[in-house]
Write a structure and sequence with these properties.
72 residues; mainly alpha
């Protein structure tokens, strides 16, 4: 399972990696657990970055905006 020569990239759902780790042999288990840790770190980082990108979307009207709306 830990073949570094293969250059394919796939997304394996974490629940599937957990199942494989519970049922595979010791040789594959280490590789699966490393992959699972990597996936979990990426998911955590993605959530943190996404929450930092979005600001409060509350609408604040100023004089200019209200004036423009009245003219249209």
């Amino acid at each position: 399972m830990c073949n570094n020569k293969v250059s394919k990239q796939s997304i394996i759902p974490p629940y599937l990696l957990e199942y494989i780790a519970k049922t595979c042999d010791d040789n594959d288990k280490e590789c699966v657990l490393n992959t699972l840790e990597h996936v979990n770190n990426m998911m955590k980082k993605s959530v943190e970055e996404d929450s930092l990108k979005h600001k409060d979307n509350s609408i604040i009207y100023n004089k200019k905006t209200l004036s423009e709306e009245k003219n249209n």
